[in-house]
Amino acid sequence: MAASWVSPPTRTELIEDLVSGVDRYNPSNLSILEDYLYHQIRSQEYDCLANLAILKLYQFNPDLYNPDIVINILTKALTASPLPDFNLCISLLDERPINATLDEPDPLPSLLPTLKRLNDLLYKCRFPAFWEYYQSDELENLRDNYTVECVGFEDAVREVAIRAVKATFTRISADRLASYLDLNGSELTEFVEKKGWKMEENVIVIPPNPDNQIEATVVQENIKLAQLTKVIAHSAGN
């Protein structure tokens, strides 16, 4: 997983050269990285390091700052939870100077607390609370202008919940899983079938994996006779 985070298999050679080479912070390459972000949004791909490079370029070149790009980056980072991607992005926004050249008011200051709260709910695995807040009237602007453009955003959030479920449960009630995924009825059944999980009446069986299986670990130490003799001799000498 770490290798795919550093260098996603979907990253092109051009982007690899930009992200890994000395041209990472060359402002003339910003448009290439921004286009790559839009590709991620349309294709359900994700490349955190490339997106961090955009934020760093904005930090070095405040006149190039684009708030919509930043919001899209943060939106994509939400779906990487529980990895620290979102907080890594936030760390590059601190003490950002106000860009007076924007034609319209900057939407980021008003949306940032919302995005932080969504990230907090996902990180704490409070999935029902996430869906309730995400679907509230308060977040209509975020849904209508940003997440709607991010193809597969809600499914990506469901994958965050699935990772937590697989690591925690061997069996889970259908009602509980439905609240985690914001799916009901045939949608939930279809989702479970795609995962290859079994449904026994109102209970869903999670296949065994290294995270949800408790196994006793036996630690055995081998002490050679020569070592034991030294210990006994040392004790006798004292």
UniProtKB/TrEMBL annotation:
InterPro entries, alphabetized: ARM-type_fold, CSN8_PSD8_EIF3K, eIF3k, PCI_dom, Transl_init_fac_sub12_N_euk, WH-like_DNA-bd_sf, WH_DNA-bd_sf
Protein name as annotated: Eukaryotic translation initiation factor 3 subunit K
Keyword Cytoplasm: yes
GO molecular function: ribosome binding; RNA binding; translation initiation factor activity
Subcellular location per the Swiss-Prot or TrEMBL entry: Cytoplasm
Transmembrane regions: none
Lineage summary: Eukaryota, Fungi, Dikarya, Basidiomycota, Agaricomycotina
Function: Component of the eukaryotic translation initiation factor 3 (eIF-3) complex, which is involved in protein synthesis of a specialized repertoire of mRNAs and, together with other initiation factors, stimulates binding of mRNA and methionyl-tRNAi to the 40S ribosome. The eIF-3 complex specifically targets and initiates translation of a subset of mRNAs involved in cell proliferation.
Cellular compartments per GO CC: eukaryotic 43S preinitiation complex; eukaryotic 48S preinitiation complex; eukaryotic translation initiation factor 3 complex
Keywords from the named record: Cytoplasm, Initiation factor, Protein biosynthesis
Domain PCI: 46-222
Listed SUPFAM superfamilies: ARM repeat, Winged helix' DNA-binding domain
GO terms for biological process, alphabetical: formation of cytoplasmic translation initiation complex; regulation of translational initiation
Keyword hit for Cytoplasm: yes
UniProt subunit comment: Component of the eukaryotic translation initiation factor 3 (eIF-3) complex.
Family designation: Belongs to the eIF-3 subunit K family.
The species this protein was found in: Mycena pura
